[in-house]
Design goal:
Its EC number is 6.3.2.4. Keywords: ATP-binding, Cell shape, Cell wall biogenesis/degradation, Cytoplasm, Ligase, Nucleotide-binding, Peptidoglycan synthesis. By secondary structure, this protein is α+β, with helices and mostly antiparallel strands. The chain is 33% helix and 21% strand. The chain folds into 3 domains: 81 residues, Rossmann fold; 144 residues, D-amino Acid Aminotransferase, Chain A, domain 1; 65 residues, ATP-grasp fold, A domain (Dna Ligase, domain 1). It has 11 helices and 13 strands. It is globular, with a radius of gyration of 19 Å. The protein starts with 9 loop residues before the first strand and ends in a 14-residue tail after the last helix. The relative contact order is 0.16.
Length: 325
């Protein structure tokens, strides 16, 4: 990664926010803030839950590092506000952000381009019957996954192993989102792969294989325990890592993502076919986060990763200022 440090001007690290992932965002933001300051960047914390975004313009911020996760930060809303303010920001633009946070819309786009993703059924809150619920295991098989369409960090996610658990799982997801995604469960290896850069310059980082206790990679095991194993090198059969990296790059470009992102993939245990689950356009940067871990395996320090992502900050209507690599 290029070590030269341009004059970034006054930089706001957007963290916290209004989503259910606020706690994780604050951890990510603090890490990014410390890293940027350690490299001489004039970086300042900015919490949109406590301050009006218009203050960014009034206080002379030249660009923003978005360390927000979930709604009102990763979904195109903050991106749209920054477009209007004319302040370049990290990560994907308005449309890519709004599509990628919606797991159903992501699936529709991926499937339209022939990219593999698990089969699914969409339910809308208060618009389904008991018969609709009963039919889902017949369509997708058991076990299956139920989750909100627009939440992250596995919030509201349930692995349903019996028909009796369907109603409770759907109610949990419906409490967080009007759209409930019921998804085919892929039994096999769980992996994730970050991407840095934009367009033809985008590059996939090393794949990480995730081995969680009892196969349960939930919110607690993602951020607050040390029992989950992250294997990098991933130890997959020869050729599989490169194939997953290529698939992730295709998805990244299909959704028109830019700057950086991380895609989650399941590999079928029997067929070894990879299935795209989702793309995170504002990945976590905590001590347990996967993008810094993968970057480190590629020889990129946390501080250099933050600088590279910041260097890629841009607006939808202008040419990107450079890849994050």
């Amino acid at each position: 990664m290029d070590q030269s440090l341009p004059n970034f001007g006054k930089v706001a690290v957007l963290m916290g926010g209004l989503s259910s992932e606020r706690e994780v965002s604050l951890m990510s933001g603090r890490g990014v803030l410390e890293a940027l300051r350690s490299r001489g960047v004039d970086a300042h914390a900015f919490d949109p839950a406590q301050r009006d975004l218009g203050e960014l313009k009034a206080e002379g911020f030249a660009r923003c590092f978005i360390a927000l996760h979930g709604r009102f930060g990763e979904d195109g809303t903050v991106q749209g506000a920054l477009e209007l303010l004319g302040i370049p920001y990290t990560g994907s633009g308005v449309m890519a952000s709004s599509m990628a946070i919606d797991k159903v819309m992501t699936k529709r786009v991926l499937l339209s381009e022939g990219l593999p993703t698990p089969n699914y059924v969409l339910l809308r809150r208060e618009a389904y019957s008991d018969a609709d619920i009963a039919a889902i295991p017949d369509t997708l098989g058991l076990p299956l996954i139920v989750k909100p369409a627009r939440e992250g960090s596995s919030l509201g996610l349930t692995k349903v192993t019996a028909r009796a658990g369907m109603a409770e799982a759907i109610a949990l997801a419906a409490g967080l989102d009007a759209d409930i995604l019921c998804e085919q469960f892929i039994s096999g290896d769980e992996v994730t792969c970050p991407v840095l850069g934009t367009g033809a310059e985008a590059k996939a980082l090393p794949v990480i294989r995730i081995v969680a206790p009892d196969g349960n990679y939930d919110y607690q095991n993602k951020y607050f325990t040390d029992t989950t194993q992250y294997l990098v090198p991933c130890g997959l059969p020869e050729g599989e890592e490169a194939a997953i990296q290529q698939l992730v790059l295709q998805a990244f470009r299909t959704l028109n993502c830019r700057g950086w992102a991380r895609a989650d993939v399941m590999i079928d245990r029997l067929t070894r076919k990879p299935y795209l689950l989702e793309i995170n356009t504002s990945p976590g940067m905590t001590g347990h986060s996967l993008v810094p871990m993968s970057a480190r395996a590629a020889g990129i320090s946390y501080e250099d990763l933050c600088l590279g992502v910041l260097r890629s900050a841009s607006l939808d209507h202008q040419k990107p200022r450079g890849a994050a690599t």
